[in-house]
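quick one, 160 residues, struct below
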Amino acid sequence: MGPDADTQPPVDQGQATHFRALEHLYTSAPVNSLFESTLEVTAPGCARITFDAREAYYHAAGAIHGTLYFKMLDDAAFYAANSLVSDRFLLTTGFNLHFTKPLRTGKVIAEGRWISGKRRVFIAEAHLVDEEGDEIGRGTGTFMRSHIALSGLDGYRQPD
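---
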């Protein structure tokens, strides 16, 4: 079973540095300039993304396109898992997504939580909650260590 942020021991300085560097990595990804979103790594194995759903993300029937659900769920689960790995970038190898409620506009929170795995393959889950507190989607992903060193990525650093 994965961690619960309320029962986690305090984060040490090395973990905090890694978490802030992951947050900077998220911000530095070009795709994230398309979305008003912020990442917070809250504890080992836990990540939260807060974003604004806007009409610009609607499909033809007037609700948020599933692309946004997938992106935010995948990112929250990914960063929850990568918070446990300080040397390598993880890659998503699979993701199972369930839509539970249509979304129109407003603030949405994606909560990611590591479930299992600590060597090569990691499993993490995430859920989306709208402004009303309703779950609008959930997913589970598998993530694998890559050959890409985090330290070699320009975005993986403490913000200035």
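The longest strand covers residues 135-149.
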